[in-house]
Design a protein that fits this description.
Rossmann fold, eight-stranded mixed sheet, about 20% strand, single chain, alpha/beta
Length: about 260
């Protein structure tokens, strides 16, 4: 092999290395930053992720009753796979209930629209998905007067899995948890001992063709074994999405549950 050939191979290898490295960092797509909700009550915000320098969006709702001199309820909401970061704020009656009951609501992206919030593994993308959620939570807690005894986490579908995972990793923050059609206590990303003290609402449609309802039934059975404070609502005939995103009644169940649970220490 001539010196010229070796140089060409070395140059090609270096180029391939840079392509691979850039691909690893650039897995986010333009569509990850798209929003869905045009309601003027929703603030569409961004921040710069320190690790990558990327601009990451999140959405925020602040009720008109907000008083900075008084601790306020916070609800952290995780969207389903492929959905926009603010998607859940468009659920039927969701913002009206947040306004009525005095909840600040924040909806992180989770780094990408299909990031899994960290529940799917320990690759850089997974860690960034989790870090995005917690960075946004910290920013909201720093900016607003948040009641540490009335801070809640919930999600739909992939967001349900993310709820089990994020709660397992950061259990001391949450006064209550909820998962709609996603996640379960038996998943390998769940630390059941870490979250067994947190009241948990599980919602699922009986005819869900995307995430079988049996997963939530099994999860609830385990909650019973652990002696967890929990509530399970199975919507007869309900599918995977419309049973909650088009039902003001089911959305109301979420708020009703969080309204009655709080930390006692």
């Amino acid at each position: 092999m001539t010196a010229t050939t070796r140089l060409r191979i070395a140059t090609l290898s270096l180029a391939l290395f840079h392509v691979s490295a850039n691909t690893a960092v650039a897995q986010r797509e333009a569509r990850d930053d798209e929003s869905a909700v045009t309601d003027p009550r929703v603030q569409h915000r961004t921040y710069t992720m320190q690790e990558t320098g990327e601009t990451i969006p999140y959405a925020l709702f602040v009720p008109t009753s907000y008083d900075p001199s008084t601790p306020n309820r916070l609800m952290v909401t995780l969207h389903g796979a492929g959905r926009q970061y603010d998607w859940v704020m468009g659920y039927e009656g969701f913002l009206d209930r947040a306004e009525r009951d005095g909840y600040i609501v924040v909806t992180p992206l989770g780094y990408t629209r299909r990031g899994g919030y960290g529940a799917r593994g320990d690759e850089p993308q997974d860690r960034r998905a989790e870090r995005d959620v917690m960075t946004v939570v910290d920013m909201v807690r720093d900016e607003f007067n948040i009641d540490e005894n009335r801070t809640y986490l919930w999600g739909h579908s992939m967001g349900g899995s993310g709820t089990y995972y994020i709660a397992s990793r950061h259990p001391d923050i949450w006064a209550g948890l909820a998962a709609a059609a996603g996640g379960g206590m038996s998943a390998d990303y769940v630390d059941e001992e870490a979250i067994r003290h947190i009241p948990f609402l599980v919602l699922h449609g009986s005819e869900d063709a995307t995430v079988p309802v049996e997963r939530s039934r099994q999860s609830v059975a385990r909650m019973k074994e652990l002696g967890m404070e929990h509530l399970y609502v199975e919507i007869e005939g309900g599918d995977h999405s419309r049973f909650i995103n088009q039902s003001e009644e089911v959305v109301g169940m979420l708020f009703d549950f969080f309204n009655i649970v709080a930390k006692t220490h």
